[in-house]
Design goal:
Number of domains: 1
CATH class: Mainly Beta
Radius of gyration: 21 Å
Shape: globular
CATH architecture: 5 Propeller
Helix content: under 10%
Distance between the termini: 47 Å
Structural class: mainly beta
Bound molecules: beta-D-fructofuranose
Number of helices: 3
Oligomer: single chain
Number of strands: 26
Length: about 425
């Protein structure tokens, strides 16, 4: 590990004080309350487009493929006191029964449901949480990196195959799950150190400079809950009235890094975090890269409710940029905020994934429904794909420039699969 000699970049409270909701260049346009639902029987949220290790979004034999965290809507189980479907309770329960499913499409937006990737019983824990499907070759082989959660939180992968035909896409052989690693307690907080720890969401990639296989993931900085110090380095340069940090020591998010011993990605070594958010925010979820103009753009999603005392910012995607994989990174747009929800619809979208072509996909969480009396605020639950938007990356800055169709995830490259000798 000797060649990895770097200090994590500190996302400071001073940086985060520069986060401003509703700046039009970093705000996702309003999603209308009459949005379409992809499938009325299902909730979908985190969306994972099929890609290669260099980040290219690919189709296979002309079929686009996405993987989603998915739960079956359950109107019988979730009812309110009048016996009516309580969709909010159902939606809030979904994390505990998340399953990874896949969808395919000819036009990158009319998604057909393909079903579960792993059959029930294959994944060793009760929750299949987010990760990344990687197309390995033109046989259709896929490494699905994901998180096995409850009990524990283990970064895992399962290798299977996607098969394309005239009629669509099917999955084969996602049957053997391999555990890769868990939080180590030295760099990354364990469940023992903090029952509310976060450790998940692997995103593997090949570093365009050194050609090695790495992954970024969500973690928290190691140490017992409450023991972290929010000192001058974490606070940054703030005006006098901002030196009191309240209970900010409980927010200890970080973006983790690991390196594989070779390109098979079967053995991994944990490295120090790339970016830490001690005293700033407790969750830096689904980190992922875009490589452009010789720069490393490192994106991560975060929430309003996970900010530390004295700070705030919208749910959305945040970014950090560097000329080197191991940093130091600069928060994009000075603050880190790249694309947030408008303050009038703070939960409209989440789990943004920035693709190398500048398109950003996310899902709809909930959108306020206009009512005659504004006091009767009601929300329409989504559980479906949000409109894709396009951002442009220019140096350390980003600009929102376009809104596209719901769930529009076009391929950047089509991979023609080899004909199978014993094909169907
Ligand atoms: C983001 C997220 C991920 C996690 C999943 C659980 O929306 O919190 O970090 O893997 O959702 O449902």
């Amino acid at each position: 590990m000797a060649q990895y000699n770097y200090q994590p970049t500190i996302w400071t409270r001073a940086d985060a004080l520069k986060v401003h909701e509703d700046d039009p260049t970093t705000t996702q346009p309003l999603v209308p309350a009459n949005f379409p639902i992809m499938d009325n029987r299902l909730f979908i949220w985190d969306t994972m487009p099929l890609r290669t290790l260099d980040g290219t979004i690919v189709s296979i034999d002309g079929w686009s493929v996405i993987f989603t965290l998915t739960a079956v809507r359950d109107p019988k189980r979730f009812t309110d006191k009048n016996g009516k479907y309580d969709i909010t309770a159902d939606w809030e329960d979904r994390h505990g029964r998340a399953r990874i499913c896949f969808w395919y499409s000819r036009d990158g937006k009319s998604w057909k449901f393909g079903g579960r990737v792993m059959k029930e019983g294959v994944s060793p824990t009760s929750r299949e949480w987010a990760g990344t499907p990687i197309l390995l070759n033109n046989n259709g082989d896929v490494d699905l990196y994901y998180t096995c959660v409850t009990p524990g939180a283990t970064i895992c992968k399962v290798r299977g195959r996607l098969v394309a035909s005239q009629n669509g896409v099917t999955v084969e052989n996602f049957t053997k799950v391999k555990s890769l690693f868990e939080a180590d307690g030295t760099y990354y907080q364990t469940e023992k150190q903090n029952p509310y720890f976060n450790f998940r969401d692997p995103s593997p990639f090949i570093d365009p400079v050194d050609g090695k296989l790495y992954m970024v993931f969500e973690g928290n900085v190691a140490g017992d809950r409450g023991s972290h110090i929010v000192g001058d380095a974490q606070i940054g340069k703030v005006p006098p009235q901002h030196t009191d940090v309240g209970g900010a020591r409980f927010q200890v998010g970080c973006i983790g890094l690991a390196v594989a011993t070779d390109l098979t990605g079967d053995q991994w070594e944990i490295l120090p975090p790339l970016v830490t958010a001690v005293g700033v925010n407790d969750q830096t979820e689904r980190p992922h890269y875009v490589f452009k103009d010789g720069k490393y753009y490192l994106f991560t999603i975060s929430h309003k409710f996970t900010y530390a005392d004295g700070l705030s910012g919208p749910d959305g995607v945040y970014g950090f940029v560097s000329e080197n994989l191991t940093g130091p990174y600069r928060p994009m747009n000075s603050s880190g905020l790249v694309l947030g929800n408008p303050s009038s619809q703070p939960y409209q979208t989440y789990s943004h994934y920035v693709m190398p072509n500048g398109l950003v996909t996310s899902f709809i969480d909930s959108v306020p429904v206009p009512t005659p009396n504004p006091k009767d605020l009601q929300y329409r639950i989504g559980g479906t794909e949000a409109p894709t938007v396009r951002i442009e990356l220019e140096g350390d800055r980003s600009f929102l420039i376009e809104t596209l169709d719901y769930g529009y995830i076009p391929p950047m490259q089509n991979v023609k699969l080899r004909k199978r000798r014993f094909g169907h």
